[in-house]
Design a protein that fits this description.
2 copies of one chain form a homodimer. Chain A contains 23 helices and 6 strands. Chain A is mostly helical. Chain A has 3 domains: 127 residues, MgtE N-terminal domain-like (MgtE N-terminal fold, Alpha Horseshoe), CATH 1.25.60; 107 residues, CBS-domain (Roll), CATH 3.10.580; 161 residues, SLC41 divalent cation transporters, integral membrane domain (Tetracycline Repressor, domain 2). The first copy, chain A, has a 3-stranded mixed β-sheet with strand order 1-2-3. A 3-stranded mixed β-sheet of chain A has the order 4-5-6. In chain A, α3 packs antiparallel against α4, α18 packs parallel to α23 and α22 runs antiparallel to α23. At the A-B interface, α12, α13, α15, α16 and α17 of A face α12, α13, α15, α16 and α17 of B.
């Protein structure tokens, strides 16, 4: 299992390329896993360009080559296809599972798509064209059609024979889908079921008729949730007329989960979703994904400015109040975003639903009370000890400290309330709760905390 | 496939419970998937207490009961075990896969653990005790020992016979692990390989000797990354002496990925990781997970207070400057957190490494320039049109607007720089980059943006 050359000492492999010792390179990677070879090709494309990557690709045996190609990220596939010959493209396309082929086609520029589809067999072309019609992020868009369907009248022995003669190019052979003449799904049977029963048993007697399935138009995130809930490794997909048209496999679901987590995290940081890895995204595209929220949040900060302006006279009388504005705003923002992020995640994991809103508010209220008392007490001590004694700032009186801490208590309570309710309301009206995360909450809580602070100051200090 | 009673009309099932019509309840759920029954039991426990949940559990046939139990969240399992009889506990424990049994044991209070282990067979007890020793979040802690190991001298036919007689209770039978007498891993062979070759072929000739494996002490997150990279459904785990001791299966990896994403998101919102679902966590535990960062960030906001205090005289001369503090701080904070969250996610997906730091800084620098120019230009327009003309605030001069916008440009550039470098440095020194997310960056950027703002104001306005 130990190899002389690995991705850890990639420089030596690069040496082979620079010295054109392709025979040595081929020998070095002969025992590698396909996923590792794909990573090597990706790095070669980065370092030496697509032509060298294709050259390396050509060193592989035909079997290995198509597996390696399937492991490459789609944007690298698209780059490589650009510099491949028509025959090479045709071979690869025929060997790819249809879900991977469709992903590739969607990434290619129109003129290359034309060339690629021209070179495909008419059957492949028809399948790809059909699969291209499924909406983005739907079950249809991540499914593949390489599965085994059988009739319920087969025996275990006949089923094994069927698998032996038809299973070679299937994405999974461990689950067999039992369908009738109209391709309606009647049940599933696993190879484990087959192995645990005598050879003469009929499939109908051992199949499981209660199948968890998806419809082509279902959201891929819901499909992923089903996989996780039921512990599935594969799931059949049916069309609107209940005919089986494909399967989703767990490896695609793992990718979906990763993408959806990235998208949630991006939304929480006020970034529009991006498609490519960080270093592959152009400066312009990164700018495009970040500027809309920055702009919106900047404009909405006009309110905080207005609030301060309207209290300008009070602030002029008691300038020391200004020093505590950032601390109050930050504490409010942090408290609010803790609540909102917790709720957003709980909603997305299905731990809570809209009907739990009063339970959530009641819980956040109690948490905010304890947090507020802890923070305000310690803050009072901090102000008196550090700001007043240590820094010798005589403007900071006990009364000022009291005003700041009282404002802090109310700010935290309101911030937690806003933080927990907005994501739930967002989901209720059909928005993604993730947009109600930290930056958005912060902007709202900033305005609220200033109003509370100045309100209390005016009232207690008579300014 | 259509059932009269589902989780959608759970109220009717609750009626059966309230009217003690347990026979009807049993009939209603007879065809349900085990995962759905588990969800029902969880809801019954919530609504009517653990006794009723156990009552429902006892309605299930023995086979179904253990599968259903495995689908329950660990904290519900622990609650139910508390009110079960010794015999029931014993049966369940023997039927659980060892990874699930270990999770359960870890959740139970000490006195219940004693009772449970007393009731287990000595072999189960020994296995559980051994598995309990693996560190939290290690490959050892998520693996199970229900796998099939074979010798390489077997033929395909002999292997099938072996599976037929030993495969019933295995977590997976589709991958067979080829080991020598000392249990060293020599290769793997899949049921697909077996099915695609003649019955008389010897395993040695068709096994794959290049196995991706984990060591018991490997981090579970690394194991999950391997599953995703190589598209695996199962992975063998070896001990420090290279002997095979267990397997990790893809369903556990899906759970790990979900947990790790939750943990990352919590860290990014300055929350310490929590174990249980939101509504199951006590107010005290929620408080405990949120207060440390709130405190730290509140204390560190002392700096912003000090900065404002030291510019108090300048602010008194030109109070209008105060109105733009929140907007500048927020824009800086949002810009910084966009960069930091993007980098944290890219690090966690393996898209970038520490050696890319200069590429990253260069990219963020260009993005920040474009963002800064766009925002500053629009902000200048906004200040002149809204703040000056619309709100008729004559203190807002062109010169003030220029100072604010210049401060904004520098703030955004510095914020993006801080936001992209801190997570990378954190990883370099062995910290989790996720702690360098929005709240932390905001606190740093707040201080920096104030220094820039007041510095520019003092210099240009001569105050």
């Amino acid at each position: 299992m130990d190899q002389k050359y690995t991705l850890e000492n990639i420089e030596e492999l690069f040496n082979f390329i620079e010295n054109k010792q392709y025979r040595n390179l081929k020998d070095a990677i002969v025992d590698w896993n396909e996923a590792d070879i794909a990573e090597l090709i990706e790095k070669v494309a980065e370092e030496y360009g697509n032509e060298k990557a294709v050259l390396l690709f050509r060193l592989l045996s035909k079997d290995v080559a198509s597996d390696v190609f399937a492991f490459l990220p789609t944007y690298v596939q698209a780059d490589i296809v650009n510099v491949m010959s028509d025959v090479e493209v045709k071979n690869i396309l025929e060997d790819l599972y249809v879900d991977d082929a469709v992903d590739l086609i969607e990434e290619l520029p129109a003129n290359v798509v034309k060339r690629v589809l021209k070179n495909a067999t008419s059957q492949t072309r028809a399948t790809i064209n059909q699969f291209l019609k499924y909406p983005d992020n739907s079950a249809g868009s991540i499914m593949t059609n390489e599965y085994l369907a059988i009739k319920k009248t087969l025996t275990v022995q006949q089923t094994f024979d069927y698998i032996r003669s038809n299973g070679q190019d299937m994405e999974t052979i461990y689950t067999l889908f039992v369908t009738d003449k109209q391709r309606h799904l009647e049940g599933i049977v696993t190879v484990k079921d087959l192995l645990m029963n005598p050879y003469e048993t009929v499939v109908e007697d051992i199949m499981d008729p209660n199948v968890i399935y998806a419809v082509t138009t279902d959201d891929q995130e819901d499909v992923a949730d089903q996989f996780s809930k039921y512990g599935l490794v594969t799931m059949p997909v049916v069309d609107s007329e209940n005919r089986m048209v494909g399967i989703v496999t767990v490896d695609d679901v793992v990718d979906v989960m990763e993408d959806e987590a990235t998208e949630d995290i991006e939304k929480m940081a006020a970034i529009l979703p991006t498609e490519k890895p960080y270093l592959k995204t152009s400066v312009f595209n990164t700018w495009k994904s970040r500027i809309p929220w920055l702009l919106l949040l900047m404009i909405s900060a006009t309110f905080t400015g207005q609030i301060i302006t309207s209290f300008e006279d009070a602030l002029a009388t008691c300038v020391v109040l200004t020093a505590f504005i950032p601390m109050l705003m930050d504490t409010g923002g942090n408290s609010g975003s803790q609540a909102s992020v917790t709720i957003i995640r709980a909603l997305s994991l299905g731990d809570i639903e809209f009907k739990d809103i009063f339970k959530v508010i009641w819980k956040e209220f109690r948490v905010s009370i304890v947090c507020a008392i802890t923070l305000a007490t310690l803050n009072f001590g901090k102000i008196m000890l550090i700001d007043r004694l240590l820094f010798n700032n005589t403007d900071v009186t006990v009364f000022i400290a009291f005003v700041v801490c009282l404002a802090m208590v109310f700010t935290i309570i309101v911030a937690k309330f806003v933080g927990c309710t907005l994501p739930m309301l967002a989901q209720k009206i059909g928005l993604d709760p993730a947009v109600m995360a930290s930056p958005f909450i912060t902007t709202i809580v900033d305005a609220i905390s200033l109003l509370i602070y100045f309100g209390i100051a005016k009232w207690l200090l008579n300014i």
